Amino acid sequence: MTIPAALYKAFAQLSDPRLRRILGFGVAAALGCWLVLALAASAALRQIHWFDNHLADVSAGIVLGLTALLLPILFFSALATFVMSFWLDDVADIVEAEHYPHLGPAREMGWAEILRLSTRFLLVMVLITAVAAPIYLALLFLGFGIILNYAVNGYLLGREYFEVVAARRLEPEAMRATFSNNLGRLWLCGAAINLLFQIPLLNLTAPVVATSFMVHVFQSLRKE
């Protein structure tokens, strides 16, 4: 199965109410986290007097307050991804039941394993957003920013989503071997997932779409 065909299948299944429910819960929870963080930071900043001059102090407070409200938006996608990552195993179940009913039940993942994967997802997304962004901006003037973005994020996201899906069906050694043997293709899949995360609003569906997409890619690799 080609990458465009797998992506098409992933988007087509978004009409499934079970997937929409996971999307809705993830976005709502992330929105709640954003409001709490932004309001708490804004309230804390209002208690601090930055300058003796009243006008300068008010101006600084307004600027920093707006920053406190807007800065968490950069990490909104990461928050939504972290919340939804607890249900990505369910997303894979739904996709497999619809398209690959012959597979039978997958390996059960305990809450400790799910929490570990979810935490790693959050760390990867924060790393991509916070650490790599200045490098991309610096290299943008040289024309290498976009290339570096897709090179780094393509590998990270391709590996993360592949492992979410493959860990359900393969032992760790076989999973690592499959990833290594198909590194180029999975890297391209990660680049496609990275593109989803770059598009506003569409990036909120990215965790569910990426998981569904990777299920199709993984099953295609197994057939080959």
Short description:
The protein has 224 residues and is mainly alpha-helical. It has helices spanning 3-12, 17-46, 54-74, 76-85, 88-99, 111-140, 145-166, 172-181, 183-198, 206-223.
Mean pLDDT comes to 78
The strand count comes to: 0
Amino-to-carboxy terminus distance: 10 Å
Radius of gyration: 20 Å
Binned strand content: under 5%
For the biggest sheet, the summary is:
none
Principal-axes geometry comes out as globular
Order of helices and strands: HHHHHHHHHH
What portion of residues is helical? over 70%
Q: Detail the poorly predicted runs.
A: none
Q: How many helices in DSSP terms?
A: 10
Classify the oligomer: single chain
Secondary structure category: mainly alpha
Structure, described:
- With 224 residues, this protein is an all-alpha fold.
- The protein is 80% helix and 0% strand.
- It is built from ten helices and no strands.
- The protein has helices at 3-12, 17-46, 54-74, 76-85, 88-99, 111-140, 145-166, 172-181, 183-198, 206-223.
- Helix 2 (17-46) packs across helix 4.
- It is globular, with a radius of gyration of 20 Å.
- The mean pLDDT is 78.
